[in-house]
Amino acid sequence: MTVLINLLFVLVIISYSIYVLVRHFKKAKQGHCRACDMDGHCDTSSLPKHLQK
Questions:
Q1: Mean pLDDT computed over 9-28
Q2: Euclidean distance between the first and final Cα of the chain, in Å?
Q3: Which of 15, 24, 27, 38 could form a disulfide with 42 if both were Cys (CB 3.0 to 4.6 A apart)?
């Protein structure tokens, strides 16, 4: 029984990790600002050059 619970925990952690990575790469591919989720509503001129759009 504990092996089954441990497997379930591992699957949840791996699934969430894959979800976060896919979401990150989709946003990066669309060109969104990587500093926040405010897409176009913030002043990026104060950010370092590599984080600006």
A1: 93
A2: 50
A3: 38
